[in-house]
């Protein structure tokens, strides 16, 4: 072993030197060169840093640099995230998205254009005028629909979600709320009055029947006493007129 090479290294190094740092790594670790000023130092990491991708070989695992416009990559020719100012599309970083695609500034990717989609129209509403459905001949009716898919930046805009049209109905008078309420109150009072009258008549009828029943019972008792009582004239003794 070279005098400058040590095997008693730290930080995941298998071999190292005082000047160049790690020269080889322990199994499963990646070897990468970090530049410090004009000097490059070898380090061993469990995963490659941003801007690098890992390759495994039988003798060593190494981290290699991505392309200049890639922030992270899977291989040198397949980016997974682009640097600022570039849009990711099929593993490549582009300054401008291809035709038929649009740039998504949130994800920094080229995505498909999404057009607006609306649901079917609802049935027409009842014919109304100033919120009422009576007291007029010509009014308006409306129908609505919902947006089920909002468009992307370059997608077709959404259509109107409501429509209105004129309508004709058979004229009918509106029942006045105050009059209707008064009629309902009068009907309720009359109903209560009729119920009270019927209740009084039923009470009088029960009292009359009870009185007749008591009168009949008294008459029966009187007749029964008369039949049982002896005739006073028959029980009188004959007067002796001889003296």
CATH class of the domain at 7-65: Mainly Beta
Radius of gyration (CA) equals 55 Å
> Which secondary-structure class do the elements indicate?
alpha+beta
Percentage of residues in DSSP E strands:
25-35%
Order of strands in the sheet with most strands: 1-2-3
Task: Quickly describe the structure.
This protein is of the alpha+beta class and 243 residues long.
Name the descriptors.
single chain; 243 residues; alpha+beta; Hormone Receptor, Insulin-like Growth Factor Receptor 1, Chain A domain 2; three-stranded antiparallel β-sheet; 17 strands; 23% helix; elongated; repeat; wnt signaling pathway
Describe this structure in words.
23% of the residues lie in helices and 33% in strands. The protein is built from two helices and 17 strands. The protein starts with a strand and ends in an 8-residue tail after the last helix.
Write the layout of secondary structure elements.
Elements: E1 5-6, E2 13-17, E3 21-25, E4 30-36, E5 39-45, E6 52-56, E7 61-65, E8 70-75, E9 78-82, E10 87-89, E11 92-94, E12 101-104, E13 109-112, E14 117-118, E15 138-144, E16 147-149, E17 162-168, H1 177-228, H2 232-235
Antiparallel strand pairs: 1-2, 2-3, 4-5, 6-7, 8-9, 10-11, 12-13, 14-16, 15-17
């Amino acid at each position: 072993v070279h005098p400058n090479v040590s095997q008693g290294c730290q930080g995941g190094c298998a071999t190292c030197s005082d000047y160049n740092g790690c020269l080889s790594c322990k199994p499963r670790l990646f070897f990468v060169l970090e530049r410090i000023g004009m000097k490059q130092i070898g380090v061993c990491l469990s995963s490659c840093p941003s801007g690098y991708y890992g390759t495994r070989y039988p003798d060593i695992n190494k981290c290699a640099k991505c392309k200049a416009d890639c922030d992270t990559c899977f291989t040198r020719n397949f980016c997974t995230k682009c640097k600022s100012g570039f849009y990711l599309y099929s593993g490549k970083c582009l300054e401008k998205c291809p035709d038929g695609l649009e740039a998504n500034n949130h994800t920094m990717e080229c995505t498909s254009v999404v057009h607006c989609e609306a649901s079917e129209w609802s049935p027409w509403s009842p014919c109304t005028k100033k919120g009422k459905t009576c007291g007029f001949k010509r009014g308006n009716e409306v129908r609505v629909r919902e947006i089920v898919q909002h468009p992307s930046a370059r997608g077709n805009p959404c259509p109107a979600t409501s429509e209105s049209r004129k309508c004709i109905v058979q004229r009918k008078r509106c029942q006045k709320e105050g009059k209707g309420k008064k009629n309902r109150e009068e009907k309720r009072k009359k109903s209560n009055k009729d119920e009270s009258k019927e209740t009084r008549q039923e009470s009088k009828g029960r009292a009359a029947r009870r009185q007749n029943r008591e009168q009949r019972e008294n008459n029966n008792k009187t007749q029964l006493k008369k039949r049982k009582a002896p005739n006073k004239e028959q029980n009188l003794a004959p007067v002796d007129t001889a003296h």
